[in-house]
Automatic annotation (TrEMBL), chains A, B:
Organism in which the protein naturally occurs: Aminobacter aganoensis
GO MF term (any one): DNA binding
InterPro entries assigned to the protein according to its UniProt record, in alphabetical order: cNMP-bd_dom, cNMP-bd_dom_sf, Env_Response_Regulators, HTH_CRP, RmlC-like_jellyroll, WH-like_DNA-bd_sf, WH_DNA-bd_sf
Domain of life: Bacteria
Identification of the protein by name: CRP-like cAMP-binding protein
Gene3D superfamilies referenced in this protein's UniProt entry, alphabetically: Jelly Rolls (2.60.120.10), Winged helix-like DNA-binding domain superfamily/Winged helix DNA-binding domain (1.10.10.10)
Keyword DNA-binding recorded: yes
PROSITE patterns, alphabetized: CNMP_BINDING_3, HTH_CRP_2
GO cellular component, one term: cytosol
Keyword Transport in annotation: no
Start and end residues of each Cyclic nucleotide-binding domain: 14-107
Keywords annotated in UniProt: DNA-binding, Transcription, Transcription regulation
CDD domains: CAP_ED, HTH_CRP
HTH crp-type domain span: 148-221
Amino acid sequence: MSRLDRSLITGLPPFQGMTPADLDRVLQQARSLRIAKDQTVFEQEGEAHSFFLLLDGHVRVVKTTPDGQQVIVRYISPGELMGIAHALGRTTYPASAVAAVDCVVLAWPGNLWPDLAGSFPSFATGTYKTVGARLQEAQARVVELATEQVEQRVAHALLRLVKQTGRKTEEGILIDFPISRQDIAEMTGTTLHTVSRLLTAWEERGLVKSGRQKVTVVEPHRLFALAEGRAEKG
Amino acid sequence: MSRLDRSLITGLPPFQGMTPADLDRVLQQARSLRIAKDQTVFEQEGEAHSFFLLLDGHVRVVKTTPDGQQVIVRYISPGELMGIAHALGRTTYPASAVAAVDCVVLAWPGNLWPDLAGSFPSFATGTYKTVGARLQEAQARVVELATEQVEQRVAHALLRLVKQTGRKTEEGILIDFPISRQDIAEMTGTTLHTVSRLLTAWEERGLVKSGRQKVTVVEPHRLFALAEGRAEKG
DNA sequence: GAGACACTTTGATCCAGCGCAAACCGCGGC
DNA sequence: GCCGCGGTTTGCGCTGGATCAAAGTGTCTC
């Protein structure tokens, strides 16, 4: 394992307000890992031996039901923590994390959490802010699933992805990792068939452009109107 | 405002491991409030001036969508914290809280949070455990809404209520506050009509007994089997 | 550059659950 | 003890999306 440079994590939300010396101390405890596409970072129900920071790539957090159905809880972007079960008093991961592309992550032993949180209050509060934000997000999705039609839910999901990982191109804003119809279906509680139909319909209207494992949002505003349930003319 | 006795909160999860003197100090900062049935404790979007502990009664946490649909996020039982937006770095309440029956709550000024959390680490960690549990719960509901049929969702919702607030009677386990078909519908993303039909069907099969604003679960095990999607014979 | 595999599109059918409408209580108030 | 209101039941028709089925199509391998 090579020495980790503090520039890797300087300025990231969880580490804000820490001195360079602090950062080095924290990094000394971490291992850096390379995760190949489709490999799992941690496994649902598995013992929470570590928590992680995504340095590069994109990770899909997935819950699998007893009967094998999958639901994508969220995507993790670079700079975000994941697998922080320990911080919440849990000893087991509530979901699996799968690399959507080749990734680089930092891993800390889980039992280090109390130590880190104690020594670096800003790290602790930063983490809890993240948790708070995710709680918000989860509850917003509950409301969405409980009240919206499929079309609106898919539109919302795309907009969330665009905001989180969108990359500007000449055609519009591209979701910056391979994402299939099936993935979108698992984010929104529908089927890949319905997602496919929606995307082709939207493409005909000029809202998006999409291809194999690829979606570009051409007209975010119109898509947003759709997500809000404001049907558009034509 | 009368002096508050520490026995009110002794032994509650958030205050575990605090000395009597600590408890008194914490209570000195709190006001106790009486909230009449159907009054709101705090309002969605409102500035988060306080956080609360429910001492007695039951509180419904409700999110309202822009177009007026309501979703019941959760019920709060005695001993639970609510309105802890401040602890999560938010300045505004993400939902409204409405008394399901006459309630008694303790209220602390929100800006006291950092102070309390700093002085009483066990209070802080206890709170974060609660938040963690709620995140879990919210994500479980996302999975439920995304993968289950209405019948299973309603069954799950009833079982959750039974576990949280069930009171044993001769007929079975009674949900211990007035709850309408509409309420159940708003917990599960369906309509009061469908809930009504389900309850009558279940009543015919001897799983539950229900009446005006009242549900008693007679056979939790069979209801659980139903919730898990294991259809029953007959 | 041929073949295979994984992803996507599209069609056809079906049904769970919604929306609407109307009747039906149980309970509190006067 | 009657009235009225808020909650509940029930019937019926309709439809958004699921399910089933099969035919395209982009991309990687050898």
